[in-house]
Design brief:
2 copies of one chain form a homodimer. The first copy, chain A, has 12 helices and 16 strands. Chain A is of the alpha+beta class. Chain A folds into 2 domains: 97 residues, Nucleic acid-binding proteins (OB fold (Dihydrolipoamide Acetyltransferase, E2P), Beta Barrel), CATH 2.40.50; 293 residues, 2-Layer Sandwich (BirA Bifunctional Protein, domain 2), CATH 3.30.930. In chain A, strands 6-10-11-16-15-14-13-12 form an 8-stranded mixed β-sheet, sandwiched between helices. The first copy, chain A, has a 5-stranded mixed β-barrel with strand order 1-2-3-5-4. In chain A, α4 packs across α6, α4 crosses α12 and α8 crosses α9. The model of chain A has no long low-confidence stretch (mean pLDDT 96). At the A-B interface, α3, α4, β6, β7 and β8 of A face α3, α4, β6, β7 and β8 of B. β8 of chain A pairs antiparallel with β8 of chain B, so a sheet runs across the interface.
């Protein structure tokens, strides 16, 4: 008999089927043994009656996380016994045969069969390979997969070509301090902290490019929204009229991603009580306007023209209240806090750049880039960078490149905020921070 | 007027349109100036007549790789003047206005307007940002993007969940010598040379997982098929009956990928004279049988039970001749040349593993993995590895995991072989080898 998946059972009432999966939990009611079985498609209740002697004997030994194979009859559950919370809640399996395929070798350090784990972050991360089996934790990564899949679909539809760019670089450009250093044969090399230069080269070749790839940041952060390795959703587009075109494109992308996640992950979102608001027009606001609001409405003053984590949280709160939007674009960041390649605004103190905030945190940075060779070299010098170190990057501009811009989106923060997770680390299978390199 | 893309022009005969793109080449015929313009969608011929004085004056200054904006009338080309080789060969643009958007600052080191570049590999790679603009070179990366997109589509359809796993590891496991070392804050760390352990953990959680991600190999190779950083197409699946199930799945995946690439990249394949044969049943052959054939048919003897690059090439030649297949699975590699986690065959000198060869080279390695904790620890010891160093990996097996297996596919080699490129480096935008860290 061929194994079937649990989510196929509701169509097979009255038939004997073969299932394989993990024991979520066993419960005994008198002589009846109940087992909740899970596989990649869902969860189902199974019952083992004493008459099926071999199966009953085998079932008595079963514990959580045993991996088993069963054959049994699919039966409709009577009305009162239905579990409305899961799609297979209307059926159960009356087990005829039960075999153990594999089993835990140790006492499980955490009980993952419960609906709500209620563990602290370190416990969640230290016992990662086990904790990730919990149904509610798994839901995070189904949403994550849907989200990055939807991102790739929409940008392709918009004419962006998927590219893969090197993560090992010969020099720590773009600033310097937050690069990890590698021993590369007889040379030193560095891990890419963004695909910025390569996606700009991509514009010179393909006009519109995107990349889903690893990003490495050697920043010693201890926050709920930073990790040292993450997946960036980057895109860059040529022939723009200005950075408004970049924001308009990103708005379209986020609208699509949110629709797709709500449509395709209903059960997973429900498990977190999360609701996704349709994205329409995302409000745009100059950074200086945002700082005025923070001052007037919240009595929060910044020492310079910049915004901190608290400011981002408060301005999102204000936008939600006043514009009913979970998103807001802050624009025109000052030149001194943006990278050298940022296109200056008509008032050259500011840049044609933006951050996209979502539910209290920055999830994307972007803007128009300088495309004129001479202007770029001048900007490097102003930022005290040596053009000679950037000669390969400068080749892009020597050969001519159209006006262009793009964004870098942090994939994990999006899922973190959609689900209201306390830390970004919960949205990463095996996160890396200053102290954590395992598991 | 809104810019349109070049591939929209055949539907717009008789209308004035606005185009933006790169000048591929300018040709003067008496007083007529012809310009081939390219954008992300294609290429089109434009003509500038002397009557349009401003445009004609501007066009005289134009050189290859100038980025321009034009307005002009879409006209049908008379029968004899049609270019059958491109989809827009039946139309041309009679230019009314021409403006330069951006232009090269230097003499171009290579002429990329030609159909065939005929450059040596170093020139191709040293001038990468320019060379990649050549139409035929660009075609490689359209095929590459289609290929990895098709891979993701088919494995998702087959129930694999997309995961992203860390590339920074705390220890150089799985062997040791071919890891790049990183300075990670106050610790040493290593770059992942495969997502092997994490995708096995993924089986314990999601049953079927796949990853498209960066792979780093510190091997000092100087060949046409090795680089030190590449994109791996990994997958791992639980509840297998044996490693035949893994091969069957990979066969299905390759068949789909090849169909999709042939269907969606016809022009790009044609530029290389490449034809993709439909994949049906891929022949399977024990490594020892392959070695017998090499001995008998080609007089090639190996010192041990292993195969080298020449052997892989010859056995593919033999399979092509005798079974008319571009693919072949070699199976049952000896235990001593496979990683410790490989499932031993009933004859424990051999393993339940395979390599998939395609047109002369290995493109994938895979097999069944050991899933029993005790057996795995014993295998580590036999391979002279310290189980204590693998304690996080071993947790996966302590908590129980089903029989499973999977593969790692090298994405760039597939495209290299489909197109008959001399080096894998031609199939990578910005390749990394022992000597090359730039551009």
């Amino acid at each position: 008999m061929e194994r079937i998946l649990i989510d196929e059972t509701p169509k097979l009432i009255g038939q004997v089927v073969k299932l394989q999966g993990w024991v979520n939990i066993r419960r005994d009611h008198g002589k009846l043994i109940f087992i909740d079985l899970r596989d990649r498609s869902g969860k189902i209740q199974m019952v083992i009656i004493p008459d099926k002697e071999d199966a009953h004997r085998a079932a008595k030994e079963i514990r959580s996380e045993y991996i088993i194979e069963v054959e049994g009859l699919v039966k409709a559950r009577p009305g009162g016994a239905k579990n409305e919370k899961i799609p297979t809640g209307g059926v159960e399996i009356e087990v005829e045969r039960l075999d153990v395929i594999s089993k835990p070798e140790v006492e499980l350090p955490v009980d993952i069969s419960v609906e709500e784990l209620n563990l602290n972050l370190d416990t969640l991360l230290d016992n990662r390979t086990l904790v990730l089996r919990n149904e509610k934790v798994k839901a995070i990564f189904k949403i994550y997969a849907e989200m990055i899949g939807a991102y790739a679909r929409i940008v392709k539809q918009e004419g962006f070509l998927e590219i893969k760019t090197p993560k090992i670089l010969d020099s720590a450009t773009e600033g310097g301090a937050n690069f990890f250093k590698i021993k590369y044969f007889d040379k030193d090399a560095y891990l890419a902290q963004s695909p910025q230069f390569y996606k700009q080269a991509g514009v010179g070749i393909f006009e519109r490019v995107f990349e889903v790839g690893s990003v490495f940041r050697a920043e010693p952060h201890y926050t709920t929204r930073h990790v040292n390795e993450y997946i960036g959703l980057d895109a860059e587009m040529g022939f723009i009229g200005g950075f408004e075109d970049v924001m308009a494109e990103l708005e379209k992308v986020m609208a699509y991603v949110m629709v797709e996640v709500s449509r395709n992950c209903q059960n997973e979102l429900e498990a977190y009580g999360a609701q996704i608001m349709p994205v329409e027009k995302i409000p745009r606001m100059k950074l200086t306007e945002a700082l005025d609001i923070l001052d007037k409405e919240y009595g929060k003053k910044m020492d310079e023209v910049d915004i901190d984590a608290e400011g981002e949280r408060l301005i999102c709160e204000w936008v939600k209240k006043n514009h009913n939007s979970d998103f807001v674009f802050l624009t025109h960041y000052p030149t001194n806090i943006r990278p050298f390649y940022s296109m200056p605004s008509p008032d050259p103190q500011y840049t044609e750049t933006f951050d996209l905030l979502f539910m209290g945190v920055e999830i994307a940075s972007g803007g128009q880039r300088i495309h004129n060779y001479g202007q770029l070299v001048a900007s490097m010098k102003k930022h005290k960078l040596d053009p000679e170190e950037f000669r390969h990057y400068l080749d892009i501009f020597k050969y001519g490149i159209p006006p262009h811009g793009g964004w870098g989106l942090g994939s994990e923060r999006i899922v973190q905020k959609i689900l209201g997770l306390g830390s970004i680390k919960e949205a990463i299978l095996f996160p890396r921070d200053v102290k954590r390199l395992t598991p």
